[in-house]
Structure formats: C-alpha cells, structure tokens
Amino acid sequence: MSLVGDNLTRPRPVATAYSGFFWEGARNGRLLIQRCGDCRLYVHPPGPICPRCGSSGVAPVEVSGRGTLYSFSTIRHLFHPAFKDDLPYIVARVELDEQADLVLITNLRRCAPDTARVGMPLRVTFEAVGEDVLPQFIPVDPAETSR
Ligand SMILES: [Zn+2]
Q1: Ligand 1 centroid vs 68 CA: distance in angstroms?
Q2: Count of CB atoms within 10 A of residue 134's CB?
Q3: Residues 70-123: pLDDT tens digits?
Q4: CA of 72 relative to ligand 1 center, distance in Å
Q5: Rg of the Cα trace of the chain?
C-alpha cells in the first residue's frame, strides 16, 4: 500500500514469500520463529535457507515469547497521520530468550517511555489492529517472574 493518498489508514504488514507463517501464527496467538532443523539456529527474519549452515531444512517453531529489551526508540514526532493517537510510542528491538542476537523489531506496550530500560524482561502479547494481529511486547510483571 502506498503511504501517499491514504493517510488515515495504517500501513499493514506485508508477508514475504517466507514470512506468511509469522503473521498466521500471530493471528493464532503464537509467536513462530524459523529454525534450522540441521544446526538448530533460529533465524529472523525468515528466509529460504539457514544463513549459518546453508541447509534448506528450515521451518517455523513456536518460541516462548519471552525476551529482553535490546534497544528502543521513543517516537514523539508524528510521521504518519494514522499513528496520531499512539504518540508517544516505543519501537523496540527485543532479543528473544531462545538465542543471543535473535531480535524482533516490534513495539513495547504498557510501558511509559521514561521507564523503558535496556535489558528489562518482556513477554509477547498479540494486538489486533484492523485486519492484522501484531506481536507486541510488554514488561513482565516482577511478581510473575518470581513464580
Ligand atoms: Zn543451519
């Protein structure tokens, strides 16, 4: 979709030839990440082969949905009219617990921008936005982690 001429509609995720499972999983409340069946590397974003061993034996698997805040940026300036009511919001890189450097670009929700800290524990949640469901992350309740 074009960002020009349709300013009140949010840009939607566009599934590539390899990422359809990711969005379908989100619609079903599951965080699915591609994994190599040969060397066991998790790969995101998904592609046709494992970038480490070259195997084409890659397939989606469900992950825990747990991670930590790797880095983030607080968006305070409106870049698209459809996001007007969201300001300020946090665009986050979340490192999943399954593997070092396995990072998703997502949003950090239910967190005031001045309380976001690199390294804070997060968990996935799924947010319906129009016709799509987006994996988003929220802080883990400290009481929840001690259980
Ligand atoms: Zn591999």
Answers
A1: 24
A2: 17
A3: 999 999 999 899 899 999 999 999 999 999 999 999 999 999 999 999 999 999
A4: 29
A5: 16
Q: How far does the centroid of ligand 1 lie from the alpha carbon of residue 113, in Å? A: 37
| pLDDT digits 0-9 by tens, 60-70 | 999 999 999 99
Strand order in the sheet with 32-36: 42-43, 32-36, 58-62
If DSSP codes are grouped into helix, strand and coil, which group holds residue 115? helix
Measured CA to CA, the distance from residue 11 to residue 83 in angstroms comes to: 10
Collapsing DSSP to helix, strand or coil, 144 comes out as helix
Q: Residue 99 C-alpha to ligand 1 middle, in angstroms? A: 14
Task: Look at the block and give the residue holding tokens 């259980």.
Answer: 147
CA distance 118 to 21: 29
